[in-house]
Amino acid sequence: MNSINDCYTLENGTKIPCLGFGTYNAKGGDNLEIIKTAIKAGYRYFDTASFYETERVLGQAIRESGIPREEFFIATKAWIDERGYDEVKAAMDRSLERLQMDYVDMYLIHWPKASLEEADWKERDVLTWRGMEEMHEAGKAKGLGLSNFLPNHLDVILENAKIKPQVDQLEIHPGYSQEAAVAYGQSKGIRMQAWSPLGRGKMIENEVLTRFAEKYGKTPAQICLRFSIQKGIIPLVKSSTMERMKQNMDVFDFEISTEDIQILSCMPQNVWSGEHPEFKIPAKRSNFNII
Question: Could you give the number of structural domains in the chain?
């Protein structure tokens, strides 16, 4: 990968940009301008979800950009309470209505479980995937993927799918690199993606990252993003200013040495968001209007 415009080719032939822009916590008002600024900066891959409440804003920004829809790669997700055969089909239609689009480039299941006590999560996920496959066949989603699915969750889908997942989004960054989960997904031909690739900002002042930033003449954030890119992982970045957006794109003119990648991969694994599909699942949304 040599620039933000470079793409991976997924197993289904779909081309996916090597760097994406996340829209979590961008819900309107000034955030419409943030997404417009990201488009002006050069981002074309945007990641949203019904849970983020940013689909309408994203769709508006794209329409008002004057850039053809076909030049964008748009991904969105079904939330925990939108899992199920009928539920996910209705959820995808709602997302398309909010986006004001005929299709998305990638549609994902956001989390594999609603709670740690959900006894029938496997059956529900299989039914969800079946509904997504039908929506894919209807042309409403060019690709299908997963988010926060670890190997034990991936296997449930892989063993029952007609269409294999193309991507899987996990929290991945130095200090929480999830080596086993990444290696497993990659071994199945799934393109791994990193949400929170900067550790929700916790890695910016990390001693190791600061040292490597000085060594390579980059920022700690750029070291984190380059770490993902060199591992073949697609980072999904977030920023609110043009300057930071451009900094996050400026990660293709240097290479971290193999030794330093190893050091970053072996950092103590104690910097994570606190969310995990087998330990702590996000609380269900409240007062959320999915219509």
Answer: 1
